[in-house]
Design goal:
Elements: E1 11-16, H1 27-33, H2 38-55, E2 71-77, E3 82-87, E4 91-95, E5 107-108, E6 122-129, E7 132-137, E8 144-146, E9 149-150, E10 157-159, E11 164-167, E12 170-178
């Protein structure tokens, strides 16, 4: 299923990686996290970071950082087993919407339990700069981690094919996909 809004800067195509082929999220996951305080979410995010670091301590970065014209950025959401394909533009903000405060990120994770999983309204920016992608934490409360390392706010970091990204408690793997591979 494709969601395209010409007013938005990026084309977002959620894809279900499960064998059922339906585009759905685990509602039980939303209920499980709905009564947690921000402190609980922050504590769980820190625990997830420690776990991620131990799981990927041996990982060597050998993947390509080259992002060619026509490629898609696929964010694979590990816990929900979902893929989100994005056609990057110059800059895109990932987060969750807040209509009360007029915040509408380019890539909205509200339908994926973004609030319950600790995503900030404007959590991270992905920027296309030449033939590479950069990721920039926008001062998020629960942090952004790249391959287990917490990013300093407002500092660009190079994003490579196969990198692990964690926003709050949501773990993604970033894949650079050619249109013909899709």
């Amino acid at each position: 299923m494709s969601e395209y809004d010409p007013k938005k800067k990026a084309h977002l195509r959620p894809q279900d990686s499960s064998h059922g082929g339906e585009d759905s999220i685990d509602v039980s996951l939303q209920k499980e996290h709905s009564t947690q305080s921000t402190y609980d979410i922050t504590r769980e995010a820190e625990e997830a970071a420690r776990s991620s670091q131990s799981n990927h301590a041996i990982r060597q970065v050998t993947s390509s950082g080259v992002f060619r014209y026509g490629m898609l950025l696929r964010l694979h959401m590990v816990e929900m087993n979902k893929d989100i394909d994005i056609s990057p533009v110059r800059e895109m903000v990932l987060g969750r919407r807040d209509p009360v405060h007029g915040i509408f990120p380019d890539i909205d994770f509200t339908p994926y339990a973004g609030y319950q999983l600790g995503l900030s309204r404007q959590h991270v920016k992905i920027r296309l700069k030449g033939s590479r992608l950069e990721i920039i934490d926008l001062g998020s409360r629960n942090g952004t981690y790249l391959n287990g390392e917490r990013l300093e706010p407002n500092q660009p970091y190079k994003l490579r094919d196969g990198d692990e990204i964690r926003l709050g408690k949501v773990v993604f793997f970033a894949y650079f996909i050619s249109e013909d591979e899709n």
